[in-house]
Structures are given as structure tokens and as C-alpha cells.
Amino acid sequence: MDAPNLSLFLAEKLRLSAPDATDLGAWLHDHFLNREERPHFPSNLLPQSQWQTPHALQQTLTSFFTPPSDSHPARKGLYGIIDVTPATTSGHITGLAKDMCQGGVALVQMRAKGCSHSHMITIANQLQELLSKFSVPLIINDQAEIAAAIGAFGVHVGQQDAPPSRIHDRWPHLHVGLSTHAQQQARDANDNHAVSLVALGPIFASPTKKGHATPVGLETLALVRQEITKPLVAIGGLTTMGRAFDLGKNGADYGATISALAQKGSTRRNAVCLGLALWLGQQMAGSLQ
Prior knowledge:
eight-stranded parallel β-barrel, alpha/beta, 45% helix, TIM Barrel, 2 domains
């Protein structure tokens, strides 16, 4: 993910004048993106008066660095996915996860490829220990047994993986996320008592999954949002602030990304940028209802 043009983003998405967008963009760069503290993006919709003008938005964003009074996980926000391979070191993974947390992510998923059981357990345990310090839930891809063994928040499965009902029957405490790639699949997931999170995608073409399913687009995302009540995760091609804003505006509770948060040295900055854009899109959607 390239460094975003904040002024251009603000002018296009919030429809600010060029001078206001330039001034607010400079403020965001100096006083928001470069803060060391973790931003806490609220899950609830705020009154328009708290974010629709540059001055009001500055005041509201400054408040995001005050730790919340409770430690409950965020109900909306950025969903970071971390790929783990046999060559991946625990230090690299925990460093990446820490940068994600410092950037304000709401959820983290561990996705292991070709790893031994012992390697997955080791990495998962270290991630769980780290993320718990930030009250960020950990989701394990596919491996429900590992998720249950380490006390993770949940497990994520695809259409061809173990049925959510089987996982729920054995480990009822696990929150199950299910990938969907069409409206009907999303409706079915919403009606399935064993599913906690409905993931829809790819919304845009994914840079990490070549030859994957055809992108469903923002229109389908918006239609699915109208039809389901469970938390909705939008995944696939989330690589810019503009796309993050559009996901939020079209009903995504969470925006999932891999590549944008995998770049060494820019993970935290990218997380803050995408989290902010997603939150602004969600606020815009709320104001249009």
C-alpha cells in the first residue's frame, strides 16, 4: 500500500474544499498518523456535528487516543490477516501483530499455510498472549481444534471446510466466521445459528489470491448489508483508503486485509489510515439512513 494522499482522499470522500482538505490532511499526518498511542475507533455512530466539519473531526479524532473505559473488543473496524508459513519466525509474527494493534485493528486472523501442528500451536499461543494485552480477538483460519486449545476468540472457515454446525456443536464457545461469495450464501450464513461472522468477498480483486472468485463488488455488499443482521466482514482488495471508505459506506462492519498490513515498516501507518477511512465511511452511511 502506497502512502496515501490524505488531502485528495478528504476532498473526494468528505467533499471538503481544497484548502480545508489540505489543512486537515496536514493535521492528520502530524497529529493522528504519527501518534504513538493506539487509536480506538468507536463502534457506534456519532452525531454528524462531531465529524462533518474539519474542526469537529479534529476534536473527535483526538479523543480516539483516550483508552475506553471498558476492555470489550470493538464491534467494527479493521480486520488484519497474518499469513504464517513454515519459515515464519515467531518474532516476525508478533512484531507484525503488535504493529497492527498499535494501528487500531479490531480483529486479527492467523492463516497458516503448510505448517506443522507444533509450529501453528507455538505461533497461535504467542499471538493470543500478545493480542489479549490489547483486547484484540484472535481468529484462527480453518483450525478449530487449535483455536479451542489456545483460547482464541474464534475460527474462520470456507465453503468447503468443516461445517459451522459441526464446529459449534463441539466447541460452542468459539465464534465461527464463514466465507461467502454470493448473496444467497450470505443469506444462508446469516440464517445459520452456528455462524457468528459473515465474510463476503472478494469485493475487489485480491492481490494475494490470483485466480480467485470473481469480485462481487460494492453493489452486492450493500445488498447483503440490507438482508443480514450478523456482523459483516468485507474481504478482498482492500489496499487503499478510498476502498476502505467505500466498504464502510456500503455496510461493512469489518474490512479485512492481508497485503496492506504485511509491509515491513508501514503496518501501523497503513492500519491507522485504513481504519480511519473505514470508520469515516461507516459514519457517512449512518448519516444517509
